[in-house]
Amino acid sequence: MSAALPPANSHSDLGSHKVKSPDSLKRKLSKSSSKELDEEEVRSGIPAKRLALDPRSRQCPYLDTINRSVLDFDFEKLCSVSLSHINCYACLVCGKYFQGRGQKSHAYTHSVQEGHHVFLNLETHKFYCLPDNYEVVDSSLDDVIYVLNPVFTPAMIKQLNLSSKQCIAYDGKSYLAGIVGLNNIKANDYCNVIMHTLSHIAPIRDYFLREENYKGIKAAPGDRMIMVPHRFGELLRKLWNPRNFKTHVSPHEMLQAVVLCSKKRFQITKQGDPIDFMSWLLNALHLSLGGTRKLSSSIINKTFRGKMTVYSRMIPTSEVTESERLALEQSGAYEEKVEENQFLYLTCDLPPMPLYPDELKENIIPQVPLASILSKFNGVTEKEYKTYKDSTLKRFEITKLPPYIIVFIKRFTKNQFVYEKNHTIVNFPIKNVDFGELLSEEAKKSHKYTHYNLLSNIVHDGEPKSGVYLAHILHKGSGKWFELQDLHVMDRLPQMIPLSESYIQVYELNKSIPNKSYVPPTKAAGNGASATEEAMSVAAEEAGPAAAEIGPVAAEEIGPVAAEIGPVAAAAETA
Q1: What is the rounded distance in angstroms from the CA atom of residue 205 to the CA atom of residue 207?
Q2: CB neighbourhood size of 227 (10 A)
């Protein structure tokens, strides 16, 4: 390589240096074309300066050959010939990926054999014309860059919950940003419903739409979990992209990261349980973002973590003799134990299905109100947990409500013989669900708002082993409900949502109805120190999910494997 051109501001050296013409630069470039121009050569600066001098850069005659209808950047960025991720280019004529740009590269060979000339570097986002090997600079290609990597400004994010504007795809179809289908590769519908649900939770969505929030997170060498937040952020940006070329998105890259990081616990080819996947995903995001036991360590804790008190006491079984029972009583084994815990979601039990048909010889589908199954967490109702040697009575009392509450309705029962589904219908209101009824009088005084509105409803439709999962999503900009099942998107009346077999529900805090039992911190506090602490807590709660202190994560104390299980107190039955 010859010496670089002199700097533009060194006027005294212009006489001693001979400025080479573009033709000479091109001739020298053609001589060295046997060496492949990889990304390190481009970063070195010399080839970039030479290519920038090419007069054809702004007058490429092949721009009209670009076919935007075949461009799909949802799949993994690897060469279709060598299967390598390094220095990968996308052919903008046929949509395939190829490696390299030199004369011996796959992209160069493809351009000569097929006559496809315009390529896009998937890492640097620069366009090149092959086999002539010069950079293409044209503002008409900005839409291709935006589809490859959508960028959201804070002003755009603020308008997402307010705008009901219809977007137009390249094929002429209209869609709402955020309400687009997700491709079901084989049996990943249980993942798609969780992706749709999390993409409409405002704090999660707003955080991951801005890549700057997690781009600089440092990971230990060999830690693959750092892939999860990056792939999840890419998927959310594509779901909310107002300038998509098509009205559906493929979660291929995100699912590959899930399969790899979960060590094939969750697979594309085999249907899994959405609640297990959601628990694993939220804990994986929490740990990857540097989440610790601190109160406000990650956006996951700030959004979903709540607090509860667990009261448990052992009860003697029929197999225990009188002498053993007296010995256990003296040792204090039957005394009530109190434990402070955190929860990620609330597990609700359904009453058993009727065993016999009715008079018309048809099975009755029972119905149960939501308040009935939530009474498990009012601090009064006791539930018995049996093991092979003893039984424990537990009651749960919620002490702090998070900004978003996840309710898991346990429908499936699995043992060594059968895998059954409970078809009981849960009757629930769409708006103004008062979770304050679960709080004690003392805890209720510290919550300014206790009413919640339904934001998402995940449904299992069909038999236990052959059913499908779909999601009912509220689009806050338009105020309409939509049903999303893989690639199928359709409107849904709010009155029809409670008639489905709900499996997972997400409720959002409604700040339009104040809690009448709320006592300001200055009146409730007895001294100055406690008044300051309560004032800070209320201020954080009023500031929204981004500032609320939810509490530490108990499951992290024994490592990521235990953290995947989620909250032990509220979801112990799911094990």
Answers
A1: 5
A2: 19
| Paired tokens of 342 | 């955190």
CB contact at 8 A, 548 and 304? no
Q: Give the separation between CA 552 and CA 297, rounded to whole angstroms.
A: 8
- Buried b / exposed e over 481-490, threshold 16 CB at 10 Å, is bbbbbbeebe
Taking all residues of the chain, what is their mean pLDDT, rounded to a whole number? 82
Alpha helices in 20-149 (DSSP H): 22-31, 39-43, 46-52, 106-114, 142-148
The count of residues in the chain is: 575
pLDDT tens digit sequence for 49-64: 444 457 888 889 999 9
Q: What is the pLDDT of residue 222?
A: 81
- Selection from 174, 177, 167, 154 nearest residue 473 by Cα: 177
**What whole-number distance in Å separates Cα of residue 61 and Cα of residue 519?**
72
Cα 210 to Cα 172: distance, rounded to the nearest angstrom: 28
Dist CA 281 CA 305 (whole Å): 14
**CA angle (307 as vertex; 306, 313 as ends), nearest 5:** 140
Tokens linked to 266: 């969750």
φ and ψ at 267, to 5 degrees?
Answer: -125, 160
Distance from C-alpha of 482 to C-alpha of 497, rounded to nearest angstrom = 10
pLDDT at 574 over 60: no
Q: Which two tokens stand for residue 563?
A: 């953290």
* Cis peptide preceding 274, ω within 30 of 0: no
Can you list the alpha helix ranges (DSSP code H) found in 269-369?
A: 274-288, 299-304, 322-331
Closest CA to 237 of 212, 267, 268: 212
Distance CA 6, CA 359 (A): 96
In angstroms, the CA 32 to CA 25 distance is: 11
Under 8 Å between Cβ of 51 and 135: yes
Identify which of 211, 242, 252, 246 has the alpha carbon closest to the alpha carbon of residue 229: 211
Dist CA 181 CA 202 (whole Å): 19
Interior angle at CA 241, CA 510 and CA 184, nearest 5:
90
Q: For residue range 322-366, list pLDDT tens digits in order.
A: 777 777 777 777 788 999 999 999 999 999 887 776 665 566 788
Q: Is 273 exposed, middle or buried (0-12, 13-18, 19+ CB in 10 A)?
A: middle
Distance in Å from the first CA to the final CA of the chain: 64
Burial 181-203 (b: 16+ CB within 10 A, else e): bbebbeebbbbbbbbbbbbbbbb
| Secondary structure tally for the chain: helices H, strands E | 18, 25
CA-CA distance, 551 to 341, in Å (whole number)? 9
Q: What is the DSSP string of 203-249?
A: HHHHHHH-GGGTTT----TT-GGGHHHHHHHHHHHHHT-TT-SSSEE
Give the max Cα distance, the chain.
108
CA 540 to chain centroid: 24
**451-461/468-475 β-pairing:** antiparallel
pTM score: 0.80
